[in-house]
Structure formats: C-alpha cells, structure tokens
Write a structure and sequence with these properties.
With about 110 residues, the protein is α+β, with helices and mostly antiparallel strands. The chain has a four-stranded antiparallel β-sheet, with helices on one face. The N and C termini lie far apart (about 35 Å).
Amino acid sequence: MKKSEHYIVVNNKSYPYSISPSDDKEMPCFKCKAARINQKFLLEDIPALLIDLPEMILDEIEYRAKQKDVIRFRVTQEDKNIIAKKAQKNGFKNVSSYLRFLALGR
C-alpha cells in the first residue's frame, strides 16, 4: 500500500484526508485535519470511518466555532517546554487541548 490522498466534500467545501501505510500492514494511518484524526485504523474499519467522516468534520467545525473566549497566563520558557512535552507524551495534539483536559477533567 502506498499513501493515497483524497478529498471529501461537506457543505460545498473540500476537506483533504490521507491513508498511508504504517509499520502494521493491517492498520494504515488515517489523517484528516478537519476532523482532527491522525491515527491507525483496521483496514475493515476504514469504510465505516469514511461514512462517518462528514459528520465528524461538521462536529469539529461546530466545536471550534464555540471556542471564542481566551484564557492566558504567563510561564517561563522552561515551564512552557515541560508542559508541551507532557501534552505530547499524553497524546494531545496541542498544549491548549492538554490544559483544557486538566482544568475540566474531560
């Protein structure tokens, strides 16, 4: 299997996604930035994922639209690096998601 890149149209807008090989031949990596997906799936689960993808994209768009307020606080560069490493280690895509999870417990 080689990497394949495609587009899905949702509400007259095209969103890219890709399916690429991984170290496990039975589980290719599926990436769709619009739906915030970047993980391996079983080959037999890909068709169901593609069916659900438009709804997942719409849900992500709605979720992001609700996030308008900003909370800021200052940290040292060392603290910022430690927080970023912990976020990555725990599987979060960014520091904001990690801090939101810690603060809200979800």
